[in-house]
Write a structure and sequence with these properties.
Helices cover 40% and strands 27% of the residues. By secondary structure, the chain is of the alpha+beta class. The model has no long low-confidence stretch (mean pLDDT 95).
């Protein structure tokens, strides 16, 4: 199933992904640093959503309370609700 999420407090402005049987595919992070978004997307491809959430949810960006990876974790959590 395809999901779309609007991140908050970070440079990225949209996160899209598919989850099938708990596995993440076709992640697209728009806005922010293109290389960073592509890198994160490639690293989580094929991983279980729960594993990605556990690894990324506490990452912060500088003095910000969140980060693009943490927002991906938030997006995955919201998809499982």
């Amino acid at each position: 199933m395809r999901y779309e999420f609007t991140p908050r407090g970070v440079c990225a402005n949209k996160i899209e992904f598919d989850i099938n049987n708990g596995v993440i595919n076709d992640v697209r992070i728009s806005g922010g640093c293109p290389g960073h978004g592509l890198g994160v997307a490639k690293l989580v491809e094929g991983m279980k959503a729960d594993d990605v959430i556990e690894r990324l949810e506490s990452i912060r960006c500088g003095g910000r309370p969140s980060s693009c990876p943490a927002q991906l974790a938030a997006a995955l959590k919201s998809a499982s609700d």
